[in-house]
UniProtKB/TrEMBL annotation:
Homodimer. SUPFAM superfamilies: HAD-like. Its EC number is 5.4.2.8. It holds the Pfam family PMM. Its cofactor is Mg(2+). Keywords: Cytoplasm, Hydrolase, Isomerase, Magnesium, Metal-binding. This is phosphomannomutase. GO terms for cellular component: cytosol. The keyword Transferase does not apply. It comes from the Bacteria. InterPro entries: HAD-like_sf, HAD-SF_hydro_IIB, HAD_sf, PMM, PMM_cap. The active site is at D12, D14.
């Protein structure tokens, strides 16, 4: 590689470091610790901080020295967490206004009911106020994977809900998220937004960052990072991340010195 040296490596979370909503597999945790010994690492995801705790922090068992190199960006970097010497603590969170959140929650429920998508059998809350993001999960946050997969196999149902709600909220970004979800955020918030913020927060230029994600395809939720001009590597799942870190990226960083 003839490009600038790599001074920071950022990762998507779901289906890149771990199966969706699941804890990091042992080989991933081991390789992340080895990576953190060499460079700062960022994890950026549309999910909220509780997911980072459950999926990443509870599995990593970091020394304070390694923890100090880890940057956490839930909800695409509208929230930012760092090690404060004792624990991971929120540095900032950019929240929607109360009026924006109320309008988003009302529009989601109204339109879901109108479209016949307001389910009666659910697992946990359907509507969730994450402060910087409002999320609709048709079957609830804790729905089993099988039920979620069967709910909208073509994506047509959440697409219809997204379109209906977007018309009502022209000043907000309305996106289809995971298999049964629709997310509402401020406009212009995607992983590129978080990576740009990271330039100042970590003091590393985009040219010296590297990103690994499973959805770098056109329309994928990692794609904005590639479009931003950050060097990227696409994986199909955490097994691909393990192979890439072990066989290519760690050796490259060792050679780079
Ligand atoms: Mg992913």
């Amino acid at each position: 590689m003839t490009d600038a040296p790599i001074r920071l490596v950022a990762f998507d979370l779901d289906d890149t470091l771990a199966p969706s909503k699941s804890p990091l597999p042992d080989p991933v945790a081991d390789l992340l610790r080895r990576l953190l010994a060499r460079v700062p690492v960022c994890v950026i995801s549309g999910g909220q901080y509780a997911q980072f705790r459950h999926q990443v922090l509870d599995r990593l068992e970091l020394t304070p020295e390694l923890a100090a190199r880890l940057h956490l960006m839930p909800t695409c970097g509208t929230q930012y967490y760092r090690w404060d010497g004792t624990e991971f603590a929120q540095v900032y969170a950019e929240t929607l206004t109360e009026a924006e959140r109320d309008a988003a929650l009302a529009a989601l429920e109204e339109q879901a009911r109108a479209l016949g998508l307001w389910e009666t059998q659910t697992w946990g809350p359907v509507l969730e106020d994450r402060g910087s993001q409002i999320t609709f999960s048709a079957l609830g946050q804790a729905a089993p994977v099988d039920a979620k997969a069967a709910w909208d196999p073509t994506g047509a149902r959440k697409g219809a809900l997204r379109d209906a709600v977007a018309v009502l909220l022209p000043d907000l970004e309305v996106r289809s998220g995971g298999s049964t979800s629709v997310d509402i955020t401020r406009k212009g918030i995607d992983k590129a937004y978080g990576m740009r913020a990271l330039v100042d927060l970590a003091g590393v230029p985009l040219a010296e960052m590297f990103f690994v994600g499973d959805r770098l395809d056109e329309g994928g939720n990692d794609r904005p990072v590639l479009d931003l001009g950050v060097r990227c590597h696409a994986v199909d799942g955490w097994e691909g991340t393990v192979a890439y870190l072990r066989d290519e990226l760690l050796p490259l960083l060792d050679a780079q010195g």
